[in-house]
Amino acid sequence: MLKYSLKRFAGAIPTLLIIVTLSFFMLRAAPGGPFDMQRAMPPQIKKNIEKMYHLNEPLWEQYGRYLGNIVQGDFGPSYVYRGTTVNSLIAEGFPVDLIIGGFALLIALGLGIPIGIVAAMRQNTGWDYGPMALAMLGISVPNFVVAPILILVLAVELQWLPAGGWAHGSPLHVILPTVSLAAPLVAYIARLMRGSMVEVLNSPYIRTARAKGLPTRTVILRHALKPALLPLVSYLGPAAVGIITGSIVIEEIFALPGIGRFFVNGALNRDYTLVMGVTILYGMLIIGVNLAADLLYGVLDPRVRYQ
Fold it and tell me: Would the pTM count as exceeding 0.90?
């Protein structure tokens, strides 16, 4: 497994290089620049600023300089947030998304998996139709609709929770954005787990286990759960990255200081280094989470061998 992991990490380097290259040149190809959105400044001042940030150099020199900085872990200075580096902006915003997305993922797994299992075991009964109908509702209603409803009910009417803000990660401020992010994911996981478990429960080896007189709890936990989780693992790879990096809409609704806000502002203001830094971070997360999902396959399915 170690050899396979090292090979995957080595294979990720060209992928990241392609992401960096495409992002770099596509951003430069877009009309406008990082200092064109502000008040018109004298040409000499603009020229000096561009020289300070090396924007007056040919593109290939800028590209080479940026690659050298990336290798050292330096994403460069932000052009919009003056006097601030992209590394510090990511260090400020990413923990917020990590906390909210991590808790949302735990809630979604903790609720979605048991709901899916119960629905599969009580197939074509009220225990199946009811949760799956709610799951379809959860899939159909986006989180930017769920979030205002939660604010209206729990924050405005009942005044149990704050309507927004971060307050340095106060638990009360984390609950509403976490639930808003988790609600659609609970629905997806429940339906996916239900379909996978139904298929596994109809497998010959499960019928054999039941014929031997094994208790239902043992059949589910020891024989059916692991293979039923395999489709879920495939789905959770990209889904985990999306939910951990947060939703830009959720950040705006609850006024959260996540990196999504920095990314949008950077894109609108042509902050090349900021957009590049967040893009590279997303790429690294996707590669890392997909690798973790592949390794988890080997844990859940003994037939999988990593050579």
Answer: no
Q: Which residues of 262-291 are buried (b: 16+ CB within 10 A; e: fewer)?
A: bbebbbebbbbbbbbbbbbbbbebbbebbb
Structure tokens at 168: 């340095």
The predicted-structure confidence for 244-263, as pLDDT tens digits, reads as follows 766 778 888 888 888 888 88
Under CATH, which number does the domain 94-265 receive?
1.10.3720.10
CB atoms within 10 A of CB 54: 12
Residue 221 CA neighbour count, 13 Å, CB half: 5
Beta bridge partners of 77: 85
- The yes-or-no verdict on residue 307 having pLDDT over 60 is no
Question: Amino acid identity, residue 135?
Answer: A
Q: Which one-letter amino acid corresponds to residue 213?
A: G
Q: What is the mean pLDDT of residues 43-59?
A: 76
Bridge partners, 300 (sequence order):
none
Q: How far apart are CA 20 and CA 23, in angstroms?
A: 5
65 residue type, one letter: R
Name the token pair of 10.
């080595």
CA end-to-end distance (rounded Å), the chain: 7
Residue 19 contacts by C-beta under 8 Å, 6 or more apart in sequence? 279, 280, 283
- Residue 190: how many CB atoms within 10 A of its CB? 27
Note the helical H segments in the chain. 2-29, 43-52, 59-71, 86-121, 126-140, 143-150, 171-201, 204-211, 216-218, 225-244, 248-254, 259-268, 272-300
CA 252 to CA 249: how far, in whole Å? 5
* Residue pLDDT, tens place only, 87-134: 998 888 888 888 888 899 899 999 999 999 999 888 888 888 888 888
Task: Give the distance from CA 21 to its chain's centroid.
Answer: 23
Distance CA 112, CA 136 (A): 13
- Asked if residues 197 and 154 have their Cβ atoms less than 8 Å apart, the reply is no
Q: What length does the chain have?
A: 307
